[in-house]
Amino acid sequence: MKFTLLGSGSTGNAVLIATEKTKVLIDAGLSAREICRRLAAVGIEPGELDAVIITHEHSDHVGGLKNLLAKTRCRVYISGETEEAYYTHRRWNGNVDEEGTKRRDALTGRRVEIKTGNDFTVGDIDFEPFTVPHDAVDNFGFVAKSGGVRVAALTDFGHVTQLIREKLRNCDAIIIESNHSRDMLRACPVYSWSLKQRIAGRRGHLSNEDLADWLQNDFDGTARHIVLAHLSQKANDRHLALITAETALKMRMPLFPAETTITLSSHIEPTAWISF
Questions:
Q1: Which of 67, 131, 173, 275 could form a disulfide with 32 if both were Cys (CB 3.0 to 4.6 A apart)?
Q2: In order along the chain (276 residues), what is the average pLDDT of each group of 10 residues?
């Protein structure tokens, strides 16, 4: 199994997990054109996708889905609540929600309903969906399993719950949010106070400091790769996020030190493949 983050940030998110037989996209928040360009950059054609899995309905996770579905015949794995929220659109023309209708048409006959706690399989990859705290209707994280390898992927969550702690144990790789620096968020001149409160809330986004706390006190040291995702372009600094995480990793006090590489994702280009 291997994976790459095609892009991650407030402008769009998409994670590709693959084996020799199966290729699954988690979220389609970039434009369809950009997803296809970045798939090509990592050697994949859109028609090779076996599934798109949607974590939640926010535009930076579903914005490119409708147009992407015109380029591939794969199924979409999505919860019932998230699907209904995806059809809701703010711009109305009389009594007709035109964008919502187009989205519904694009998913007709192609959706597979998923629920938290109910595992499902795509090709030779098993997925464990689990609930994470965010201000969406039904937000999920996932653990992907194949050939004895476990890869966890979760972004857009405000705090680390006991369920998240359990799901992140015994993983070979973890894709996890490190959204903002608390100080940079407070000082950010372009965010309103209400937006800052939302981001910093327990159903908002995970800060560098929150991630550092988990790394220092709860990380079991098993994962050989941790990829920092969904870094804010206005309330974070890439080098600060990396240094904060690496420092926390060194401050762990386990019997055996963790041999873990921390990688930064990017909003403008895919990460290198991480393979097992």
A1: 67
A2: 97 97 98 98 98 97 97 97 88 63 95 97 98 97 98 97 98 98 97 97 98 96 97 97 96 79 97 98
User: What residues does 96 pair with on adjacent strands?
Assistant: 93
In 3-state terms the chain splits into helix, strand, coil percentages (rounded to 5) of 30, 25, 45
Task: State the Cα–Cα distance between residues 217 and 248, nearest whole angstrom.
Answer: 9
The bridge status of strand 149-154 relative to strand 140-146 is: antiparallel
What pTM did the predictor assign?
0.95
Nearest 5°: phi and psi at 114?
-120, 155
Residue 149 is encoded by which pair of tokens?
Answer: 């390898």
28, 99 Cβ separation under 8 angstroms: no
**For residues 157 and 136, is the Cβ–Cβ distance under 8 A?**
no
Query: What pLDDT sits at residue 258?
Result: 76
User: How far, CA to CA in Å, does 4 sit from each of 109, 132, 136, 201, 207?
Assistant: 28, 22, 25, 29, 22
Q: List the structure tokens of 205.
A: 């986004």
Query: Residue 260: CA atoms inside 13 Å, Cβ hemisphere, count?
Result: 29
Residue with tokens 């560098």: 208
Residue position matching structure tokens 């693959």:
18
* Residue found under tokens 């309903």: 113
